[in-house]
């Protein structure tokens, strides 16, 4: 397949009409028209085969995930996604792969009416870079630097499922025997949390006027909350017993293993955020409405860094607090 046939295939699969796209794929650049009065929120994320996803990941799942992790960054800002760019580096021009990839990408793009407006296609080791654009009202963009002492700390959904899904895929994992004997639908659900994460866009939008700081959990809860703490100049205390767990995680892991997955596992793409006391009740009500719910897991305190506490308030030391590419 030639480069332009590949681009054509992607273009057809991802066709979404938007009035703010004056000119999409096909020229040297796209022409886009942001609405007056809204801020443009922009982010990019790269996925490298063998680093960010197992080499065996299906093309469909990779297409979905490459957009999902980017939309998750917009969710964490409280932005509404609108446009995307896709830079694909492929070892060869494999039509079946590109069809599958575009299918998974288009499935999620259609859910949120995200228009693919351009990109680049090159040959090399399998790597996917996506750029996303979103809009948000200027006064209400969610940032990492707004947490205040006395705020409550929340997280959406459940934690640790994606990291457990990764262990399900790893044949050498010490726990693999227990996981191997888990019901197939439980394993599949955990793996889908890894390969098909749900960007919490509705939650992010609902939090715009309620949260004081927000981040998406991509590297691990404690590591990511550490960014809020550092940027806001505060400390954060997390109550280990309050961390939300799925029924799959509860069924398959004992408490210490579960805690390691919840607090240190990456790839959850839930939102972790701080909330002033006056907005706590609103958060609980509004996030129950958007489906994923939110659990109160801790508080913002004076000081610095993130501390994980047991039932007695004693700090717990975890071997791994999160993912660092260069550690
Ligand atoms: P140029 O050489 O001028 O950069 P390209 O030949 O790379 O143009 O791309 C032609 C058109 O196809 C451009 O509009 C570009 O944005 C789009 N495009 C290329 N690759 C992709 C891709 N993987 N996904 C979406 N659009 C793409
Ligand atoms: Mg180009």
TrEMBL record:
GO MF annotation, one: kinase activity
Record-listed Mg(2+) 2 binding positions: 45, 73
Enzyme Commission identifier(s): 2.7.4.16
Reactions catalysed: thiamine phosphate + ATP = thiamine diphosphate + ADP
InterPro entries (alphabetical): PurM-like_C_dom, PurM-like_C_sf, PurM-like_N, PurM-like_N_sf, ThiL-like
Binding site for ATP: 119-120, 144, 218
Domain PurM-like C-terminal, residue spans: 149-308
Ranges for domain PurM-like N-terminal: 26-135
UniProt-annotated binding residues for Mg(2+) 4: 28, 43, 73
Positions annotated to bind substrate: 52, 267, 323
Annotated Mg(2+) 3 binding sites: 28, 73, 216
Chain positions recorded as Mg(2+) 1 binding sites: 44-45, 120
Misc. remarks from the entry: Reaction mechanism of ThiL seems to utilize a direct, inline transfer of the gamma-phosphate of ATP to TMP rather than a phosphorylated enzyme intermediate.
Role noted for this protein: Catalyzes the ATP-dependent phosphorylation of thiamine-monophosphate (TMP) to form thiamine-pyrophosphate (TPP), the active form of vitamin B1.
Family according to the record: Belongs to the thiamine-monophosphate kinase family.
Protein name as it appears in the record: Thiamine-monophosphate kinase
Gene that this sequence comes from: thiL
